[in-house]
Amino acid sequence: MARRPSLLDDEEFAAICVRLDAGGSDRDDLRAATKHTLALLQAKAPGSSVEVRVPPFAAVQVIAGQRHTRGTPPAVVETDPATWIALARGRLTWADASVRASGERSNLSDFLPLTDA
Fold this sequence. Notes:
The chain is an alpha+beta fold. 34% of the residues lie in helices and 14% in strands. The chain has helices spanning 10-22, 27-44, 81-89; strands at 50-54, 58-62, 76-78, 100-102. A hairpin with a 3-residue loop joins strand 1 and strand 2 (58-62). Helix 1 (10-22) crosses helix 2 (27-44). The protein is globular, with a radius of gyration of 14 Å.
């Protein structure tokens, strides 16, 4: 079973966001911010009917509904780390984002943004 992404403390996430906004972030910052915001999504929308994939860093299952255990889930959302972080921070809207989303409940706009950092 995959490990759940973990939350960062507020100061650490804020420092990463400053580097992201300044264009000085690195792969470690992208990984940490991706996992942090996916953990926020899991807390806000617990469940396992939608799989949110942000390769190469993490994938989580969220939103209550039919649970799946094998193969491709009935609903999948996939995007790159920069797009995911911008969505989670409210810097990009769902309608304007480049996201591959399929299946019932795959529109995450009701859950975004996840943070105002």
